[in-house]
């Protein structure tokens, strides 16, 4: 697996020590891009949080905007909302 990833990200080649979280984040990001069910992502403006706005509502709006461009098995499994 490490050699396969190193073909696309040479920073993981060889015997240098790399943070395992960085490696896992790179691997999951690549899988998410390849498994994204949204083939033509629409342009989405991210809503701004206004003073006094309920954080739960602001979070739900931001999550909805994110989901319009991203929908994959990786997102379903590893993102918490």
Summarize the structure.
This protein has 81 residues and is mostly helical. Helices cover 54% and strands 0% of the residues.
Structural class: mainly alpha
Helix content: 40-55%
Q: What sequence of helices (H) and strands (E) makes up the elements?
A: HHHH
Structure annotation, total helices: 4
Radius of gyration: 17 Å
Query: The biggest beta sheet, please?
Result: none
- Which band does the percent of strand residues land in? under 5%
Termini, distance in Å? Answer: 29 Å
Stretches where pLDDT is under 50 for at least 5 consecutive residues are none
Mean pLDDT: 86
Tell how many strands the DSSP assignment holds. 0
Shape: elongated
Topology:
Blueprint: H1 2-8, H2 20-35, H3 55-69, H4 73-78
List keywords for this structure.
mainly alpha, 4 helices, elongated
In words, what does this structure look like?
- The protein is mostly helical.
- 54% of the residues lie in helices and 0% in strands.
- It has 4 helices and no strands.
- The chain has helices at 2-8, 20-35, 55-69, 73-78.
- The mean pLDDT is 86.
